[in-house]
Amino acid sequence: MQCSLCLGANLEIENLNKKINNAKDIVAKAGFAQDLLARVNLLIEQHKDKTLPCVSVLNLRKRTAALIIKTKRLV
Ligand SMILES: [Zn+2]
């Protein structure tokens, strides 16, 4: 289901997700979400074929990270 690009970055992305989930407050969460967003953006750029199913998953991760960052701005 995942391509070699995503497989290579998967551990790093999972680690960032774990950090977001375990972060004590929204400021810390948003900090890790920024890292995740940057990493996912880079990963999407590396995909030549943007119609791959894994790119949709990456876009979803991107939206989730952006939402966390947006929430921090509202606090
Ligand atoms: Zn991929």
Provide a descriptive summary of the structure in words.
This protein is mainly α and about 80 residues long. The protein has one domain (about 5-75). Helices cover about 85% and strands about 0% of the residues. It has three helices and no strands. The chain has helices at about 5-20, 25-45, 55-75. It is elongated. The termini are far apart. The mean pLDDT is about 95. Zinc ion binds next to α1. The site of zinc ion has 7 residues, from α1.
List the helices and strands and how they pair.
Blueprint lengths: L3 H19 L3 H21 L6 H22 L1
Helix pairs in contact: 1-2, 2-3
The chain binds zinc ion.
Zinc ion binds next to helix 1.
Quick take:
With about 80 residues, this protein is mostly helical.
